User: What shape does this take?
Amino acid sequence: MSNPFWSPELAQLEPYVPGEQPRGRLIKLNTNENPYPPSPRALEALADKQLAEALRRYPDPESTELCTAIARQYGLDSGQVFVGNGSDEVLAHSFYSFFRRPEPLLFPDITYSFYPVYCQLYSIDYRMPPLRDDFSLAVENYAGPAAGVILPNPNAPTGRYLPLEEIERLLRLQPQRVVAIDEAYIDFGGESAVRLIGDHPNLLVIRTLSKSHALAGLRLGYALGQRHLIEGLERTKNSFNSYPIDSVAQRVALAAVQDSAWLADSSARVIATRERVVAALTGLEFEVVPSKANFILARPRGIGAEDLYRELRRRDILVRYFNKPRISEYLRISIGTDGEMDALLAACAEIIGSRNG
Ligand SMILES: *Cc1c(COP(=O)(O)O)cnc(C)c1O
Assistant: This one.
């Protein structure tokens, strides 16, 4: 693809393709959104009349109150928090700020498919050490000259969780480089690496309100790390967009992050549903990759993954199919409400039963 008006490199870009956002009343299990409404405190903040009035002004460029509230949740200070327009933006600024070096950036062969896109955008070379056959991560593959390391924990789209001792080993393998841990799904049963920040100047933890806080539409993500890393991100942000977090997002996110009771409750419900679905799919002879996320990666037996994807779609159930090496026989299924998951399980039983019958 090319166009005489485009900068020459633009034609070479292969942009990220997000999961479909269909209209209509599908059971939507394809983009790992939270099936429950956000904290009532967030909704209250949204309805506040003063918020509408504040739209006349530019927002606080530093999101001071929000950064302070986030810092307090983790026992950090506000200078150790950087907020962005979704964690995708925080990731983009991290790639630009830390990974533009002569050596390759390291991330797993099966992971968030936005990483190679940022590499292309910022001309970053990368290498993808393969996960083991069971999709677990072998930390020793991350030694040697590198621009840095990035990985989601739990990983996406596998759902597999890497224990903190392993993250510490990784941090020690690359003491001179940033190791970024993308914790988009950490609230669904994993332990955050945040408590390693004090001892590791190279650790950057990236999180989002999109999944566990049920605020994907608000676009709020953040990074936590020692002050010198946060300063790096601020330099990039202030060379790009002074006001990435609008007034609405600042206020609603503030209320959301302060409601830790809601978070604990809502995550526990998602986890309980996940465990039930794992057991039921295993009963239907799926091979299910162990997950600590709000989705599971599962391989059906007796039917190809792509066929099952299509059959589910015909029944108005949308899951994610990746036509990619190593995972093309799996489906990634987001955890919805109990009712939605019952519909999914019934449909799978019916489709597989009719094939075997
Ligand atoms: C969903 C997701 C993100 C993006 O989250 P936003 O904050 O909505 O931009 C980042 N990393 C991973 C691994 C994700 O799955």
About this structure: Residues 86-88, 112, 152, 156, 182, 184, 208, 210, 216, 221 surround pyridoxal-5'-phosphate (CB under 6 Å). The chain has a mean pLDDT of 96. The longest helix spans residues 260-283. The radius of gyration is 21 Å.
